[in-house]
Amino acid sequence: MNVTTPLKLTDALPVIPLRTDETIAVVGLGYVGLPVAVGFARHFTNVTGFDINESRILQLDDGFDSTLEISRAEIMESHLVVTHSVASLSLASFFIVTVPTPIDKGNRPDLSPLRAACKTIAPHLSKGAIVVFESTVYPGVTEDICGPILAEISGLRCGVDFKLGYSPERINPGDTEHRLENITKVVAAQDAESLERVADVYGTLVHAGVHRAPTIRVAEAAKVIENTQRDVNIALMNEIAIICDRLDVQTSDVIEAASTKWNFLPFTPGLVGGHCIGVDPYYLTAKAEEVGYHSEIILSGRHVNDGMGAFIAAKAVKMLASLNVPLSRANVGVLGLTFKENVPDLRNSKTFDVLDALSEFGVRPIVHDPMANRAEIPEGAFDWVDAGDMPKLDLLILAVPHHEYIEGDVAKLVRDGGAIVDIRSALNRGDIPRNVRYWSL
Q: Do the Cβ atoms of 401 and 336 come closer than 8 Å?
């Protein structure tokens, strides 16, 4: 069935005048698209959120966001129309594409969702429309791949009948401080006139202001290096953590001491997953290879970060061996499956690397996560338990420090003489019983 229904409204309507000069369609209503769509619906009369997932549309129509990024009140108070009917796109003058851009099993860019979005939009393009992409891509994708698809299917001339724009997303799932409205928005377009149009539309929503990039390729490159820089820095700290472990030095103590210098950057070690930091660098290195350059630092950082799950599992197994616990009978609990704390997103979570490595050692872990949707958890060599059903553990791995774990006394799950692996150094070491061994990155 087709759902093209305005989200229910309350009396708490915006007091600012709503703009009517653009009809906006946001294509893709995930972690990025929904906040964008709801944000624009506070300022524009005609905003449509489109997604091919019918169940997602039905949930949003009822005011429920499964990503937990937008509250029911925010949804209900907006003027947003949600739909999975492509016919609704025909009225749009301003398209915003926010579909995912993942990598394949060979760590190569997978542009199939982006290509599909272009094929969906193209038949509904009209003269004067502008299509702005927010999805992470390597430099050149918007103009060399997306533009030609839109032109071929629509029969319109790219750069003449319709224009392209690019404005990289900076949504940080679970972050209530850095929101769409208070983060500077980078915008770019094919020409000066289109650039001002894009800047004007986003400027209505983004209070922090917009940065006009000189070209679309500059904006595309800026996006991929933002997360590549973080990835490389975390890889450095992960490598330092491995060295500190061999030196029997606590990494968090070292970082605390080094942070007293004014220009030290306090990155911390950990598992690097999710749909951005662990993915975006591969978009940059793939394009680099295409133009004849093989990355050294970026790919080395990716290699270090991708190997941390196996390193942590090996450390856990060594701790079990020191406790004289047979691996096949060990009670090993793993808390946290999502890619980061306090979000339900399981995409590219590196906790599963830890679980897989433990399985190779003959350990069958017991897992729990208060945020994850159990139906979305892939099958594996582990057992799920509900809250309160975790048995006494020989070893506990705190993989993702959700609030529920930090605020609770997770150390009590460990038996006398057992051990804790605190990947992110999230626990207060003073709260750990003296007869429980403790290790962290």
A: yes
